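Appendix C: a fully annotated inverse folding record. The material below is reproduced so that readers can follow the format used throughout the book. The structure is listed first as tokens, followed by the designed sequence.
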């Protein structure tokens, strides 16, 4: 199994709705075109808030994604989008803003920004000022200006994308009469790094948006989105589920898991017993109950997470299919598995093929199927919906 460190791009975002609304007015999308090894990230902010803003931002983000995916000339894409966007007849402004970030296989970055706060580059503990080029145009008797940035992403760089709900937090207050502003976000980020070190993408996005919410006294005046793009050493995860077909390979399975350079999950009681026995480690059951009736966890020294097999995997599949974030669910075994998967770039599945009588238990739900069927569904979801790389190994 190849576990040599590689570079991967981690993308996380956090959103808060305008106080009193029930849907997000901002849209954040990303897509990895694997055959070209090209990554596209879109942030769009719909005019106003609520359903109307949601529809407008979704339409704009989808249009930007489709144009950018199909056309290599990003500048041309932006011009097409500007001519396509509807214009508010009263305010004479577009119904949505957008930021397009394109990253190629050499980590060259092209940014096109229309009316969103400028992206922020974090490099070596500092926020870097990047040169910005401008292009002006006219559409429907309305002038507009596009902003362009070009640079090369270096290892451990982070790009912060913001909607104006973040930079305008606190607007009209005594401390922030003009809002928090881009500079306020920059100063906050640099102070955060100085005191706590460089946070991962998820933590950085959550911390920035939490601060904006605090500035707005926990009643966001507008929809707010913070996205973070982080070039990091690939984070790999190995999940082992099911005993090997040949019992003579039990020791090999345990050694492969033990020597894996990354985080490790075991899903399956029989599998856990085999691993513990072969490694000479103690298997301990955790006396913790969950409202979702998921089986309890176990622990093995050196293994990050040990769960039951089929039922837990079924819950993982459901969470991924429905887009249920781990922080929306209780701290259940399945939510912990999902969280570890979403925090990883490459996920390896080692699936045992020995017949397990528990699979035939009539008390199990009819729709959970066999272990391999569920894992195949999980792999498809991870690759299609979450842009993860997966690898499958049968034993």
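Designed amino acids, in order:
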């Amino acid at each position: 199994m190849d576990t040599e460190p590689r570079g991967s791009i981690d993308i996380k975002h956090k959103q808060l709705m305008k106080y009193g609304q029930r849907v997000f007015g901002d849209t954040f999308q990303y897509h990895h075109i694997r055959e070209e090894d090209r990554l596209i990230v879109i942030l769009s902010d719909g005019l106003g808030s609520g359903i109307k803003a949601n529809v407008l931002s979704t339409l704009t983000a989808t249009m930007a994604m489709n144009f950018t995916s199909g056309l290599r000339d990003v500048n041309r894409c932006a011009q097409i989008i500007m001519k396509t966007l509807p214009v508010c007849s009263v305010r004479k402004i577009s119904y949505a803003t957008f930021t397009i970030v394109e990253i190629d296989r050499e980590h060259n970055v092209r940014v096109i920004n229309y009316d969103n706060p400028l992206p922020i580059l974090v490099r070596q503990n500092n926020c870097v000022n990047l040169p910005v080029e401008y292009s002006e145009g006219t559409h429907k008797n309305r002038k507009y200006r596009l902003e362009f940035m070009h640079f090369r992403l270096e290892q451990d760089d982070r790009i912060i994308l913001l909607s104006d709900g973040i930079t305008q937090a606190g607007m009209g207050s005594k401390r922030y009469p003009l809002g928090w502003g881009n500079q306020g976000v920059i100063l906050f980020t640099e102070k955060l790094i100085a005191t706590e070190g460089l946070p991962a993408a998820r933590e950085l996005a959550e911390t920035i948006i939490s601060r904006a919410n605090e500035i707005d006294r926990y009643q966001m005046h507008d929809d707010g989105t913070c996205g973070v793009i982080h070039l990091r050493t690939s984070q790999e995860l190995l999940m082992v589920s099911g005993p090997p077909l040949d019992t003579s390979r039990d020791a090999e399975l345990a050694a492969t898991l033990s020597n894996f350079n990354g985080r490790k999950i075991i899903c399956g009681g029989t599998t856990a017993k085999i691993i513990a026995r072969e490694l000479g480690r103690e298997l301990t059951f955790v006396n913790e109950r969950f409202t979702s009736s998921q089986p309890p966890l176990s622990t093995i020294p050196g293994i990050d997470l040990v769960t039951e097999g089929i039922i837990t995997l079924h819950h993982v599949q459901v969470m991924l299919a429905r887009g249920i974030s781990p922080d929306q669910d209780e701290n259940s075994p399945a939510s912990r598995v999902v969280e570890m998967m979403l925090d990883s770039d490459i996920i390896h599945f080692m699936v045992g093929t020995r017949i397990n009588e528990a699979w035939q238990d009539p008390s199990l739900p009819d729709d959970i199927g066999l272990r391999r069927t569920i894992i195949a569904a999980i792999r498809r979801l991870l690759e299609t919906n979450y842009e993860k790389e997966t690898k499958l190994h049968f034993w």
